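[Meeting: bench + compute handoff]

Bench side (C.D.) handed over the final construct sequence. Compute side (W.E.) agreed to return the predicted structure before the next meeting so the bench team could plan truncations. Sequence as handed over:
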Amino acid sequence: MADTLTEALGRLKVRISSLTAENASLREANRKLSEENAQLRELATEAGTARRRAELDAEFLAVSHKLADDPDTLIATRRHIAQLIRNIDRCLEMLKE
């Protein structure tokens, strides 16, 4: 009976070691996935911001084409609108501070 109990304890010790190693491995994988998730969320936020800016630029370009009859006026209008956008961006940055 002593052999059987000793053998059972030995098997339990091996199984506990195996489960402990598996748990550590899963915790490390979870940590890595959490980091990757945070990075992907940040990238998604940046992509959303870039998309909104691109949509705004496209809208302003469409409006500038409607405002100008000739190429020279179109260029001046685009420059004026770009300047307005930069001013708005600066104002927003100042408000954030």
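W.E. noted at the follow-up: The chain has two helices and no strands. C.D. will use this when planning the next construct.
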